Amino acid sequence: MRIGTTTLISILFLTALAVTASAEEVQLSQKEELGKLLFFDESLSMPRGQSCASCHDPDFGFTDPDQDIPVSQGVIPILFGNRNAPSAAYATYSPNFSYTYDDSGQIIYYGGQFWDGRADNLTEQAKGPLLNPLEMHNPNKRTVVMSIRRSDYADLFEEVYGPCSLNNVDVAFDYAADAIAVYESSEEVNTFSSRYDEYLEGEYTLSDEEKLGLELFNGKALCSGCHISSGSEPIFTDFTYDNLGVPKNPDNPFYSIPRVYNPLRSAYVDLGLGGSGRTEITDPEGEEGKMKVPTLRNIGKTAPYTHNGYFTNLEDIVHFYNTRDVASEGWPEPEVAANVNTEEMGDLGLNDSEERAIVAFLLTLDDE
């Protein structure tokens, strides 16, 4: 069940912050420039060596460039997060975490940041990795702010946020997160420069295979039920949460990190939205296994796929969507068996050429 079209349009209208432009044309504001410097600063980890861009590389659609590992590695080499880093591009279009009701009265949660929606917005999201021991490993806010005070852009920081804005640790940390979020909301990160955007503007002609893929995407394959393709600048997500029935990934290195960080080891189960601890959720068990529907923009650059990096290529994940519930395919059991979406995927009846056409269309969503 999905958010109604009218509701979604209202959400997009209220939260759309970027304007179409290519990266070459972008002129960053002072605050955006400060946010960019913070985003790429490898001295903001402990020990130094990891920045936001380390797991959100522009050349890889603002996701992790190490595509051979299913989840993201922290600055400490033996530590790994439990999830694959989602794209920072187009994340600004996600509304703050909230909920609505579908036509049957069922509650639908949407928006927020991270796979489980635990952060309301980009500013709150930016704070998480800085203090996460499995990521940038800073012990506290003071460590981060001290690094900023020593940086070459400390003067710019005070130009943007005012004299003495670095004096108070809590305030300065909040300002840093704000600046990062502002950069992530800039036209440099959200370029709308894909072949599909050119197609919508009448400047690119889809191939026959790409055109078939688009027709299937909006029709037989049911993709657009969650990855909305309508509008002049579609984000290809409805910002809701879904359990796709993705299997547990036995290659996830999170299972073997020290017990102080993962006491359950390989018995760990990622409950997604149901385990996010959000107080708005009245029935956490009813949300277990659900992960935020990601944007499909730059999907060709952002392997591996799904929250645990189970799928290493687009062909495999499209085949999974098509055949998950076909017994002869032999897919493993879902990591979380409850709340699996059986209405919009699992046995779509697509043939091999139709699967390939969908992949061909998805590749048109990569920004130049």
UniProtKB/TrEMBL annotation:
<dbReference type="GO" id="GO:0020037">
    <property type="term" value="F:heme binding"/>
</dbReference>
<dbReference type="GO" id="GO:0046872">
    <property type="term" value="F:metal ion binding"/>
</dbReference>
<keyword id="KW-0732">Signal</keyword>
<dbReference type="Pfam" id="PF03150">
    <property type="entry name" value="CCP_MauG"/>
</dbReference>
<keyword id="KW-0408">Iron</keyword>
<protein>
    <submittedName>
        <fullName>Cytochrome-c peroxidase</fullName>
    </submittedName>
</protein>
<dbReference type="InterPro" id="IPR026259">
    <property type="entry name" value="MauG/Cytc_peroxidase"/>
</dbReference>
<dbReference type="GO" id="GO:0009055">
    <property type="term" value="F:electron transfer activity"/>
</dbReference>
<feature type="domain" description="Cytochrome c">
    <location>
        <begin position="30"/>
        <end position="188"/>
    </location>
</feature>
<keyword id="KW-0560">Oxidoreductase</keyword>
<dbReference type="GO" id="GO:0004130">
    <property type="term" value="F:cytochrome-c peroxidase activity"/>
</dbReference>
<dbReference type="InterPro" id="IPR004852">
    <property type="entry name" value="Di-haem_cyt_c_peroxidsae"/>
</dbReference>
<keyword id="KW-0349">Heme</keyword>
<feature type="domain" description="Cytochrome c">
    <location>
        <begin position="208"/>
        <end position="366"/>
    </location>
</feature>
<keyword id="KW-0575">Peroxidase</keyword>
<dbReference type="InterPro" id="IPR009056">
    <property type="entry name" value="Cyt_c-like_dom"/>
</dbReference>
<dbReference type="InterPro" id="IPR036909">
    <property type="entry name" value="Cyt_c-like_dom_sf"/>
</dbReference>
<keyword id="KW-0479">Metal-binding</keyword>
<keyword id="KW-0574">Periplasm</keyword>
<dbReference type="InterPro" id="IPR051395">
    <property type="entry name" value="Cytochrome_c_Peroxidase/MauG"/>
</dbReference>
<dbReference type="GO" id="GO:0042597">
    <property type="term" value="C:periplasmic space"/>
</dbReference>
